[in-house]
Write a structure and sequence with these properties.
InterPro entries: Homeodomain-like_sf, HTH-type_TetR-like_transc_reg, HTH_TetR. By secondary structure, the protein is mainly alpha-helical. The chain folds into two domains: about 5-70, Homeodomain-like (Arc Repressor Mutant, subunit A); about 90-229, no CATH class. It contains 13 helices and no strands.
Length: about 230
């Protein structure tokens, strides 16, 4: 998928475009861009404030005017990542068949994670240090599951689900989201050698993920016509 956002590069571009912005805005953008670059290069465990300010060309004391510690700077980068993920993911899937909508979304996520894999590599250490981020991720995934459930109900022409049916479908969606997240992590962030041997291309990975999504949600393979409709 073309034109997928490269988050560290976009943060650098924002610094270049902020020349006429107030100094405080420019400085914060510089620190964000430098933190993203350091995270990509060395990961969270090796992230230091000294390296951030050296890359940004700022004094160490300046860092503390914006962030109390390295974790808060890394969290700010993660917020930028998540905001860009939401902003740039495909829209208008209601006009597509279920398989096409799922496939397009998987193409996007595969490309986005592949493009930003090194930036994401330190998430495990950051989450261990700041466990509240796990709750935030859980909330984000639950909202996403709710959006997907509403789309499923609309496509099936169902007026209302019983509370039991809704819980069961939400559980199915949450588990498939976990499966997809783990698949992307293994494919791009921490790839096992034998798994890497069987991933032939990003498109192949997106296609297999889509088939798994479809089977889990609809209990069958898609009709061939649905892939081209």
């Amino acid at each position: 998928m073309e034109n997928v956002v490269y988050v560290p590069g976009l943060l650098e571009e924002r610094v270049r475009l902020a020349q006429n912005k107030p100094k405080r805005t420019r400085t914060r953008l510089m620190l964000l861009a430098a933190t993203a670059a350091e995270l990509e290069q060395s990961g969270y465990e090796a992230l230091t404030i000294n390296n951030i300010v050296a890359r940004a060309g700022l004094a160490r004391g300046t860092f503390y005017l914006y962030f109390p510690n390295r974790a808060e700077a890394a969290i700010a980068v993660r917020r930028s990542f998540m905001a860009l993920l939401r902003k740039t993911r495909p829209r208008g899937g209601a006009k597509l068949s279920a398989w096409q909508a799922i496939h397009r979304m998987n193409q996007f996520y595969v490309s986005f994670y592949a493009r930003n894999a090194r930036l994401l590599a330190g998430n495990g250490a950051l989450f261990h240090e700041r466990p509240e981020l796990l709750l935030n991720r859980d909330q984000v995934n639950h909202r996403w599951a709710g959006i997907l459930l509403r789309d499923m109900v609309r496509r099936e022409g169902i007026n209302r689900l019983t509370p039991e049916e809704e819980k069961r479908r939400l559980l199915s969606l949450r588990l498939v989201i976990i499966m997809a997240d783990e698949a992307l992590r293994n494919a791009f962030i921490d790839p096992p050698p034998y798994l890497s041997q069987v991933i032939t291309s990003h498109e192949d990975l997106a296609d297999v993920l889509t088939t798994l999504w479809y089977r889990c949600l609809y209990g069958k393979d898609p009709d061939p016509a649905e892939k081209t409709a």
